[in-house]
Amino acid sequence: MATRLRWRLGVWLVGLAGCGDAGEGLGDAAAAEVGADAGVDAGRDASGDAGVDAGRDASGDAGVDAGRDASADAGVDAGRDASADAGVDAAMPAAGVAPRGLVAGEELLRVGATPVALSGAAPRVFRIDASPRSHWYFLLRFAPERAQVVLAVDRFDGARAAPLGQTDAGRGLRTLSVFDPSGPRTFWVRVLPGAGLSSATLTLTETPFADGSRCVDDCARLLQMPLANDPRRDGYTTDSATVFRYWFGRRDLVMFVRHAGQSMAARGAAPFVPQDFSQWDGATPGADVGALRHASHQRGKDVDLSLYGTDGAAPWRSYCVVRQGSDGRECAPGTVRGFDAAANVPFFADFFATERVTMCFLDRELIGAMRPAARAAMLPSAVAAQFSDGVHLQHWPNHDNHIHVRVSEASSQGAALAYEPFEAP
Ligand SMILES: [Zn+2]
User: Fold this and answer.
1) How far is the CA of 13 from the centre of ligand 1 (A)?
2) Mean pLDDT, rounded, of the chain
3) pLDDT band at 411 (very low <50, low <70, confident <90, very high)
4) Cα of 246 to ligand 1 centre, how many Å?
5) 296 alpha carbon to ligand 1 midpoint, in Å?
6) Which residue, 77, 112, 140, 181, has most beta carbons within 10 Å?
7) What's the gap in Å between 303 CA and the centre of ligand 1?
8) pTM as predicted
């Protein structure tokens, strides 16, 4: 345990060093690189979805533990179990709430806008004790917009502040969100000033939120996908290509992605990796730098998700030999390799069962592998039908490495059954 904790601290210190040295200029470089690459692909590719891969290398965002560490600290589980039945109003302090002053210099952060007083490169750390019934959104706006700054979130793991995620990419703002339904939980958000930063304002927004497979109210509200508290339980994670400012979905889509993650995690599956939803403002990702990464992905109705392979993992990777067609990458016939169709059936079925999916995009060769696997899975007929109706799974180039899921923007649950106009991914 001691070794592990030292290692974690080491990661954190490396992160701090990086924001002042190697990180310098990254925000601009990231923005420029996203724009340049996405532009090239958009030109060669009518689908507009090609920018997904182009942008992947450009981001400095990452979950701190992504891919390396399942956050198996005993304290996490102890905190969850101990607080599972504790209401917010319980008289006993919740196990997830840290003692005051645990983190030196912590300041309580209130809902609303807080000017962040800056003193050179000195970090500022703010604390919230989060209700398990709310989604908590941190938005840091800063000037000048090309200045360097890292926004990072830690979570109380029962003993200490454990790094959860951080973001340093893009211009003018940083965004991260947390949600912990297991009980009251202390989080800390850190502002790490870098080169050129002259002013910053941190805004905390609390939105009532609950997990579930059905959204009944306020379903179109744009919410940032919260950081996974434990990828092994939440079933999703980040990778080096995650861009948090592009991680904003409709409430219902965020619920469905979380539900699918929890379902797959309960089956023992590895976490999948959601990439772009929409920008923080609901626009298509890349609109902030004038280089769209997709044709759609507005208003939080779309998301791109990695797929499960036969090795049990679900990183972003191609599952076939691709050829360049006039419209983008496609799997050459008969070349599907390492794709675990049987594992992807319950994954897709979790979305289809919501009756809110209007269409998904996937390479036709992978769709071809999915259909017999779905038939073999003995799914409810309404769910099974969506694997083979040609609408809920339809071919589009550049989908050999992910599925694009779109949910209805119609207001009522039943209305999704009326198909909405086609829109390219
Ligand atoms: Zn997409």
Assistant:
1) 35
2) 83
3) confident
4) 12
5) 7
6) 140
7) 6
8) 0.81
CA dist., res. 161 & res. 365, Å (int): 45
Which residue type occupies 340? Answer: D
Query: What are the tens digits of pLDDT across the range 304-343?
Result: 999 999 999 999 999 999 999 899 999 999 999 999 999 9
Q: How far does the centroid of ligand 1 lie from the alpha carbon of residue 320, in Å?
A: 19
For the packed helices 341-352 and 364-376, what is the interaxial angle rounded to 10 degrees?
A: 80
Q: What are phi and psi of 110, to 5 degrees?
A: -100, 160
**Which residues are paired to 206 by β-bridges?**
136
Cβ atoms within 10 Å, residue 3? 7
Q: Count Cα atoms within 13 angstroms, Cβ side, for 233.
A: 14
Q: Which residues contact 395 (CB under 8 A, 6 or more apart)?
A: 361, 362, 363, 364, 367
Ligand 1 centroid, distance to 77 Cα (angstroms):
34
pLDDT tens string 6-25 = 333 333 333 333 332 222 22
Question: What's the pLDDT at 104?
Answer: 97
Which pLDDT belongs to residue 417?
52
48 C-alpha to ligand 1 centroid (Å): 9
List domains and CATH numbers for the chain.
Answer: 2-218 (2.60.120.380)
- Checking if the pLDDT of 100 tops 50, the result is yes
Confidence (pLDDT) at 38? 33
- Judge contact between 291 and 170, C-beta under 8 A: no
Spacing, Cα 423 to ligand 1 middle (Å) = 11
To the nearest whole percent, how much of the chain has pLDDT over 90? 73
Q: Which pair of tokens denotes residue 414?
A: 């039943």
* CA 288 to centroid of ligand 1, rounded, Å: 17
Pairing between β-strand 173-178 and β-strand 403-407 as defined by DSSP bridges:
unpaired
Specify the DSSP element, H or E, that contains 129.
Answer: strand 124-130
Tell me, in angstroms, the distance from the centre of ligand 1 to residue 268's CA: 26
Q: What is the pLDDT of residue 92?
A: 66
The token pair that represents 108 in the structure block: 């309580």
**CA–centroid distance, residue 208 to ligand 1 (Å):** 28
Nearest partner of 169 among 26, 284, 286, judged by Cα: 26
Tell me which residues have their CB within 5 A of the ion that is ligand 1.
304, 404, 425
Centre of ligand 1 to C-alpha 164, Å, is 26
pLDDT of amino acid 413: 60
In angstroms, what is the span from residue 151 Cα to ligand 1's centroid?
Answer: 26
| Cα 407 to averaged position of ligand 1 atoms, centre (Å) | 12
Between 387 and 62, the more confident residue is 387
Rounded to the nearest angstrom, the distance between the alpha carbon of 177 and the centre of ligand 1 is: 22
